[in-house]
Amino acid sequence: MGTESEGVQMTDACAVILAAGDGKRMKSAQPKVLCEVLFKPMIAWVVDSVDRCGVPHTCVVVNDSGKVEPVLPARVKTAVQLERRGTGHATKMAAGFIRECGAADVMVLCGDAPLVTGEDLAKAYALHKAEKNDVTVLSAVVDNSTGYGRIVREDGHARREDGQVTAIVEEADTDETTRLIPEINSGAFWFGAKFLLEALDKLQPNNAQGEYYLTDTLAYAVNHGYRAGACVVSPDAALGANSRKGLQQLNAIARERVLEKHLENGVDIPFADGIVIGVDVKIGPDTRILPGTILKGNTVIGAGCEIGPNSHITDGVVKDGSQIISSYIDSAVVEANVKIGPMSNIRPDSHIMDGVKIGDFVEIKNSTIGEKTSVAHLTYVGDSDVGKGCNFGCGVVTVNYDGTNKHRTVIGDHAFIGCNTNLVAPVRVGNHAYSAAGTTITEDVPDDALVIGRARQVVKEGWTVKTGKFRKK
Ligand code: UD1
Ligand code: CA
User: Fold this and answer.
1) Which residues have any ligand 1 atom within 6 Å of their CB?
2) pLDDT band, residue 27 (cuts 50/70/90)
3) What is the pLDDT of residues 174-210, one digit of tens each?
């Protein structure tokens, strides 16, 4: 993973991410940090931003629900906060981690502010080091500061940001003057490790909410001869989600950011309507994305593709020149110059080779479809290995499930599978084999053979008249 820190080495630093809050204000049974922005839990955004800085050790403070751990990468450590007693108390739960990793500096971040970037953190770290600070808060100047901690500075400076920071006042503790301050605490900080451990021990819950505020460490520094500073970053860094409405706003900002990045990279998005692209999705130049398309997870799209309208791809790979029209792909690989859709569903562990054509109402699951094979209409291919250059007629079904077990179907190269053929697995069809329409294949078919397995047609002349089935006009 690349580092955004541009020359600032963070090897002697560690990160603590606070994520023990519940989902009360979200009216969710999930911890808040699992709420998703662009289909990715907020906590995963923060972990990734920290990673991009190249910080070697990260600890996430979680509650005891056990729900956050599964979304964290294995190398991230956790500390448990059993009771919600404030951000200072939560940070203290990571004191053991901070001591153990022995780094000189610690960044502390909120798991519910996903848009803080590696650049913001690197910029603040550079200032933290240059000013030899013991604490540096990442602040932002916003239009509406309601709900945030306000950054208090000494008066008498031409520019507000030149005034020495003296305290952070939480919303519940503001008075008429402090309430009007437009500069707020983003929730992210850099600390000298020694200072942080000392300050955490001295915190008192003497405030409107009766909590241990991490933000009080700033006033502690100022009052005890330590150096405190603030690094003003983009207001996005501070944007947290405390409600569903807030989450929607975060999604809107993140979506716009991601779309812009792809436009800059040469992706063609003529109309953005209903297009949502996850932050980790990669798209090559000259690929056109059409309305209603949702691309999630670690999806990778090549160059010169056309995706959409209304295509949904999750953790899929689609290589150069392929076209995916109104179709779903989940955890599958589509090679180059493939055409899929409209209305098809490519399910996990499928591998669609070069030049394949998959038409309408086709479902492929856990199967390989060989080069230039055509599966054009109303077909189910599951647990199968299909060779190259085959042609599937309309309505072919691989009968892969016997009610207890799944079985594989193997089809050789250049086979012709006639309309409405059922292949009852386990079964093998040879190269250049040919199945007649309506055949139910239950036994292996050798290379070059014709297979017909259907009842012979019987015609009884005059039957409907004789039986009086239809009255003659
Ligand atoms: C906090 C800051 C505020 C800042 C804002 C930015 C404090 C006291 N206030 O307020 O100055 O402007 O973030 O968004 O720090 N958490 C725990 N355990 C707790 C309490 C919180 O782990 O006991 C975690 C939450 O999961 C969350 C983060 O800490 O990820 C922030 O907590 P939250 O309650 O959202 O703080 P704010 O009121 O937003
Ligand atoms: Ca918050």
Assistant:
1) 18-21, 32-33, 61, 81, 84-87, 89-90, 110-113, 148-149, 168, 170, 184-185, 187, 213-215, 238, 240, 242
2) confident
3) 999 999 999 999 999 999 999 999 999 999 999 999 9
Kind and range of the H or E run holding 344: none
Q: How far is CA 404 from the centre of its chain?
A: 35
Mark 201-221 as b/e (b = at least 16 C-beta within 10 Å).
eebeeebeeebbbbbbbbbbb
Own/partner contacts of 216-221, CB < 8 Å, gap of 24 or more, are 216/88, 216/168, 217/88, 217/135, 217/189, 217/191, 218/135, 218/137, 218/165, 218/166, 218/167, 218/168, 219/166, 219/167, 219/168, 221/134, 221/135, 221/195
The string of pLDDT tens digits covering residues 431-466 is 999 999 999 999 999 999 999 999 999 999 999 999
Closest by CA to 179, choosing from 218, 204, 206, 147, is 147
Is 1's pLDDT higher than 50?
no
CB of 368 closer than 8 Å to CB of 351: yes
Start-to-end CA span in the chain (Å): 80
Exposed, middle or buried by CB within 10 Å (0-12, 13-18, 19+), for 68?
A: buried
User: For the CA atoms of the chain, what is the radius of gyration?
Assistant: 31
pLDDT at 473: 57
Q: Which two tokens stand for residue 4?
A: 């955004």
Reduced to 3 states, what is the DSSP secondary structure of residue 200?
Answer: helix
Q: How confident is the model at residue 7 (pLDDT cuts 50, 70, 90)?
A: low
> Per the residue annotation, which of 128, 224, 262, 377 is the catalytic one?
377
409 contacts: CB under 8 Å, gap ≥ 6: 381, 383, 384, 385, 398, 400, 423, 425, 426, 427, 428, 429
- Is the confidence at residue 4, as pLDDT, over 50? no
What 3-state DSSP class applies to 351? Answer: strand
Q: Minimum-distance ligand to the CA of 169?
A: 1
- Residue 128 annotated to the active site: no
Average pLDDT for 84-88: 96
Question: Which pLDDT does position 156 carry in this prediction?
Answer: 85
Distance from the alpha carbon of residue 71 to the mean position of ligand 2, in angstroms: 20
What is the Å distance from ligand 2's center to 127 Cα?
Answer: 24
Do the Cβ atoms of 307 and 318 come closer than 8 Å? Answer: yes
CA–centroid distance, 47 to ligand 2, in Å, is 16
DSSP state of 401: B
Q: Quick check: 444 and 427 in contact, CB under 8 A?
A: yes
What is the model's pLDDT at position 3?
46
- Going by pLDDT thresholds of 50, 70 and 90, the confidence category of residue 25 is confident
